[in-house]
Amino acid sequence: MAQVNIESRRSSLPMKLGYGTKNFIQDNMGILIGFFVLCVVISFINPNFLSSNNLLNVLRQTSTNLYLALAMTMIIILAGIDLSVGSIMAVTGVVTTSLIALFGAPVIVAVLVGLMVGVLIGSINGYVAATTIIPPFIITLATMNIARGAAYVISDGKPIRVMSESFNFIGSGYLFGVLPMPVLYLIILLIVCYFIMNKTKLGRYMYAVGGNAEAAKFSGINIKRVTFFAYAFSGLMAAFAGIVLASRMFSGQPTSGEGAELDAIAAVVLGGTSMTGGYGRIGGTVIGALIIGVLSNGLNLMGVSSFWQYIVKGIVIIVAVYADVIKRRKS
């Protein structure tokens, strides 16, 4: 009988997680309106905002944040956190460019090694988070410092310039001369992450573990495996973001990715994912990242100092978290 109950609960999860366009609009009505108003205001202040070149630039810049935010959505749904993604970006960018510029490695080999470095760090985060009682905040804070230090040690604190056309095409090229390659990667990753979270058992298990870990455990869900996957995937996405960014900058820099984890978390929170776990949507994260990207771009167009942009982003995060708390209390 217990087994029947467990299976019935599992089989009911897809119905509960079914998600259509109508539900998406209803759940994200607030941030959709905010996003629309933000775009209108910025376009009135500076008409150049709506130019095709600028909009493509916004998408290109937002794509890097979204690589991180997609994986961060999974981790926060699990009621976790990953502070190491910015540092993983730096160390993987430095490792990849070092292999190409200093050791003459083929681009494909260097990229694969860089991705493996990210997966390794993410796997360490996931293993420790899954098998110990150390909070993910502390675990990823430690690996954040280790990875950043490794980036400085490997590069000796200096940018490593790469002049390979094939490598630079990864982040600076265009598909058919129109679509930036980082945006193409983003479209593919969005499809993959949406499929994982909405069409697979793994995605349903993430919601179950984040909502109630004890209940998920008694339902037969392997919590350790789910946690390990989320952090390993986050390491992979951070490594990919670091390689794309290094390609765009034509160099691997130990300072790259500084503060990237905060932008990713802000995008996830703005998108409606609960910091307490168990609830969140990939679509909401996309809107949250677009708001941050449009906000940064708009402030740049208006000539606002980058120092003030940090303050604005901080206020946005506080407001978003407070709105989430109020929403949860009402529901």
TrEMBL record:
Taxonomy, top ranks, is:
Bacteria, Bacillati, Bacillota, Bacilli, Bacillales
- Output one GO MF annotation: transmembrane transporter activity
Its protein name is: Ribose ABC transporter permease
Q: What InterPro entries does this protein's entry cite?
A: ABC_transp_permease (IPR001851)
What membrane topology is annotated for this entry?
Multi-pass membrane protein
Location, primary (coarse class):
membrane
Can you tell me where the transmembrane regions are? Answer: 29-46, 66-92, 99-121, 133-154, 174-197, 228-246, 282-301, 307-326
* GO CC annotation, single: plasma membrane
* Pfam short name (any one): BPD_transp_2
Originating organism? Neobacillus notoginsengisoli
User: Where does it reside?
Assistant: Cell membrane
Q: Does the keyword Cytoplasm apply?
A: no
> Per UniProt, which keywords does this protein have?
Cell membrane, Membrane, Transmembrane, Transmembrane helix
